[in-house]
Amino acid sequence: MEIFILPDAAAVGVAAAARIAAVVARQPEAVLGLSTGSSPLGTYEALAELVRRGEVDLSRASGFALDEYVGIAPDSPQSYAATIAHDVTEPLGLDPARVHVPPGSAEDLEAACEGYEQAIRAAGGVDVQILGIGANGHIGFNEPTSSFASRTRIKTLAPRTREDNARFFGGDLDAVPLHCITQGLGTILDAKRLLLVAQGEAKADAIAKSVEGPLSAMVPGSALQLHPHATVLLDEAAASRLTLSDYYRFTADHLPPWQRVGGPSVL
Fold it and tell me: What kind and span of H or E run contains 50?
């Protein structure tokens, strides 16, 4: 796992976008795993700026969203389908036909979950999975105690997650769905590269437990320790509870040329 501590949230977004752009430059038809929530917004904004400047072309890339609420229509403003369309597909110039979101309003949800797994496999797997992390350590909607072998499935959201997400529903906790479809930890770990971004003091405890704590189902983010190509980009606040922060800064300052942004092994 590579851990980089950056000055602020804006720098996290710029660094993450540069890494994604480097992959797409090598693989124009790259498959991106798309996270929602507040954490990756800066990444998408920085990537959109690269698109506007003509420095990266995502028109041939594909995307698979991590999760979706159950029981919300895709055109609802609170759905992740609508969020992905507004924050990712349109500003990044992605082909809407190549962007996929778990069908949370499907009549047969279990079949929909299996179908989503099959679609990811048919696309050749995810090349770069973008991840945020919840305050309780969840990635995707894999709440604490999720199996590291889990696949795309229906999950019940933890009370803390629903409370954190109530802001997207006008502060009305009762309006936040109880269930979701999420890619499993096993599905996430199948991606060729993982790129986790985190900003703010509220994420510091989850980050410390995920990258420096023991491997534990109680901290789903710790699954990143099992992946051979995981990169974690943090601002100072999110990194504030790390024990080895000086070492992470030292390694970042002494990267060999082939591991720097733009190099062949940047991710």
Answer: helix 41-52
Catalytic residue among 138, 142, 164, 235: 138
Q: Is 136 a catalytic residue?
A: yes
Confirm whether 117 is a catalytic residue: no
Q: What is the DSSP letter of 267?
A: -
- Catalytic site residue 127? no
Per annotation, catalytic residue among 68, 87, 117, 143: 143
Q: Which residues of 78-107 are buried (b: 16+ CB within 10 A; e: fewer)?
A: bbbbbbbbebbbebbebeeebbbbbbbbbe
Q: Which of 68, 87, 136, 165 is catalytic?
A: 136
Taking the model in full, what pTM does it have? 0.93
For residue 104, report the phi and psi dihedrals to the nearest 5 degrees: -70, -15
Distances (CA, A) of 148 to 89, 90, 205, 223: 29, 33, 20, 7
pLDDT, averaged in runs of 10, over the chain (267 residues): 95 96 96 94 97 97 97 89 95 97 93 97 98 95 96 94 89 92 98 98 97 97 98 97 95 78 50
What string of DSSP letters covers 153-192?
EEEEPPHHHHHHHGGGGTT-GGGS-SEEEE--HHHHHTSS
- Residue 142 among the catalytic residues: no
